[in-house]
Write a structure and sequence with these properties.
The complex is a heterodimer of chains A (112) and B (112). Chain A is built from no helices and eleven strands. In chain A, strands 2, 4, 5, 9, 10 and 11 form a six-stranded mixed β-sheet that branches. Chain B is mostly beta strands and 112 residues long. Chain B is built from no helices and eleven strands. In chain B, strand 4 and strand 5 form a beta hairpin. Chain B is globular and about 35 Å long. Classes of the chains: A mainly beta (112), B mainly beta (112). Chains A and B meet through strand 4, strand 5, strand 9 and strand 10 of A and strand 4, strand 5 and strand 10 of B.
Chain lengths: 112, 112
């Protein structure tokens, strides 16, 4: 299917540690986006990386994209308790379908 | 600037009833979409629209209808509600599918 697959499904770390989440896919993409969802809330956009880009940064967030391996990673450095949330990758597959497809997400828990 | 608004926030239906979930955005975005999120899962695309008068099916369109008569509004209609449609529904908008998406706060729907 045209879905991103994320791992791990759940991640539990201490404040100050780094958190890495991965997203893999199977076909060519236009862009890949990362979103955060706090419990019971709507999604908030974090970073968009296009297929011709390899790395993007935003504050403590770093996203990489390896189109040869069809994978992306989201790194949160020096994590805080407030980073506790679910993180989703969303993929716009190439081919003109205009469908933004989400993965199942990674649940991150950051403990004080 | 309200962003993306959704009404109602909560709704309980009986099997077989119909209803419309409302979504509106004031950012003049051409691209709008509807997703459903089941407990502990990612978002699944129901329908999307690339502009007024143009809609298309997503991953899970059965049991749902949409129309897009204006740029601002993108209602989602449940024709005959079923318990399997119990979910949280999110509406999103973006300039195009190739841009970041802005999400509404969601509608929590329960079908008895």
């Amino acid at each position: 299917s045209q879905q991103g697959e994320e791992d791990p499904q759940a991640l539990s770390i201490q404040e100050g540690e780094n958190a890495t989440m991965n997203c893999s896919y199977k076909t060519s993409i236009n862009n890949l986006q990362w979103y955060r969802q706090n419990s019971g809330r709507g999604l908030v956009h974090l970073i968009l990386i296009r297929s011709n880009e390899r790395e993007k940064h935003s504050g403590r967030l770093r996203v990489t994209l390896d189109t040869s391996k069809k994978s992306s990673s989201l790194l949160i450095t020096a994590s805080r308790a407030a980073d506790t949330a679910s993180y989703f990758c969303a993929i716009l597959f190439s081919g003109g379908y205009n469908k933004l497809i989400f993965g199942a997400g990674t649940r991150l828990a950051v403990h004080p | 600037n309200a962003g993306v608004t959704q009404t109602p926030k909560f709704q309980v239906l009986k099997t077989g009833q119909s209803m419309t979930l409302q979504c509106a955005q004031d950012m003049n975005h051409e691209y709008m979409s509807w997703y459903r999120q089941d407990p502990g899962m990612g978002l699944r695309l129901i329908h999307y629209s690339v502009g007024a008068g143009i809609t298309d099916q997503g991953e899970v369109p059965n049991g749902y209808n949409v129309s897009r008569s204006t740029t601002e509004d993108f209602p989602l209609r449940l024709l005959s509600a079923a318990p399997s449609q119990t979910s949280v529904y999110f509406c999103a908008s973006g300039g195009t599918a190739n841009n970041e998406q802005f999400f509404g706060p969601g509608t929590r729907l329960t079908v008895l």
